[in-house]
Amino acid sequence: MSKTTAASVESALPAALNGFKEQAAQVKEAHRASRQSIQDDPMMSDLGKRGKLDMLKIETRAKLDGIKAEQEAFVKNLRAQVEKEFRGNQPADADSVLLRRDAADRARKIIDHREAMEVLQDAIANGDASMAHAIGIRARNSVWEAVAEAYQAAHPQTADAATALSYVEANTSGAAYNMANNITFSDPNV
Q1: How far apart, in Å, do the first and last CA atoms of the chain sit?
Q2: Could you tell me if 184 and 24 are in contact, meaning their C-beta atoms sit under 8 angstroms apart?
Q3: Which of 33, 90, 126, 136 matches a 20 to 30 Å C-alpha distance to 82?
Q4: What secondary structure does DSSP assign to 44-101, as a single string?
Q5: 63-86: per-residue pLDDT in tens?
Q6: Where does the pLDDT of residue 57 fall: very low under 50, low under 70, confident under 90, or very high at 90 and above?
Q7: 10 Å Cβ neighbour count for 124?
Q8: pLDDT at residue 19, as a whole number
Q9: DSSP annotation of 158
């Protein structure tokens, strides 16, 4: 897997999301054309038309749900890839896993950015990479910008991944994204 950069994410994510929207628009247009064809068929009874229209609606809904599932999988995989790069290579031996888990537990108990900054500075000064990383993750998730920037300054190799992750999160969550998805994957207008 190649390294994901902020620039590659900023170009690939909108293109992929637009691709999913275009697929949904094509499905809706095909639905509209098929619906019109069924309604214009003079050889079919009203009951037959109703049955075909109901089946068309079910098929269209299934196609739209499939495209939405593909989009969700794409976003989930992209986020996971960027988060993995943000975390970096971490040893998988039992001691290292326990150290990371303990550091994450201690970081979750921090309730404000001042305390987080103090603990981060101590971790950096003492060479405690596990604790520093746990605080960096906590700061990013809690939107403690000063703490996150201090972590990135101490670990510049994470800056690009952090920027990419912020871009992914900003463009794949929130009210605007949810509204766009609701519109894109809604039933076709009849």
Answers
A1: 44
A2: yes
A3: 126
A4: S-HHHHHHHHHHHHHHHHHHHHHHHHHHHHHHHHHHHHHHHHHH-----SHHHHHHHH
A5: 999 999 999 999 999 998 988 887
A6: very high
A7: 18
A8: 97
A9: G
The total of other beta-carbon atoms located within 10 Å of residue 17's CB is 19
Q: How far apart are alpha carbons 59 and 57 in whole angstroms?
A: 6
Between CA 139 and CA 113 the distance in angstroms is: 8
Question: CA-CA distance, 76 to 70, in Å (whole number)?
Answer: 10
Q: Cα–Cα distance between 161 and 140 in angstroms, integer?
A: 12
Provide the whole-model pTM. Answer: 0.75
Residue pair 155/136 in contact (Cβ under 8 Å)? The answer is: yes
Amino acid sitting at position 60: T
Question: Could you read off the pLDDT of 96-133 as tens digits, one per residue?
Answer: 888 889 998 999 999 999 999 999 999 999 989 889 98
